[in-house]
Design brief:
Blueprint (H helix, E strand, L loop, with lengths): L1 H15 L3 H17 L4 H21 L9 H13 L3 H18 L12 H9 L1
Helix pairs in contact: 1-2, 1-4, 2-3, 4-5
Length: 126
Amino acid sequence: MDRLYQLLEEEIKLYETHQTHKALIKTRDLHMTIIEASGNVYLIECLRKIISLSHIILAFYDISDERDYNAESEHSSIVDAIYNRNPSLVKELAYNHVFSIKRDIDFSKSYTRLHSFDHIINKYMV
């Protein structure tokens, strides 16, 4: 549990300081730590692929700078429910979280900017 709370705290601080790429890494680590605890090999592999794809989408469409979602709050609620050993609440919160992610990566939205590969490398990797 300490590891989950540590990742959550680091994720929030990185988003607050606009270090999006580093925050996405913490987000990935938080998701993977939770799902790996399930021991479900299918879910682990599926989530690993989904996270990689979603991070590519977030980078190219640059929706991570103008987020209108509440991921940190959702993550906090999920971690608290795990800590309180409330599996039905964890399930409900995780289910709702998936729909939040889907909403944020909705290609029917009109995005104002699509970044070049060079821009993404300079922004996230340098």
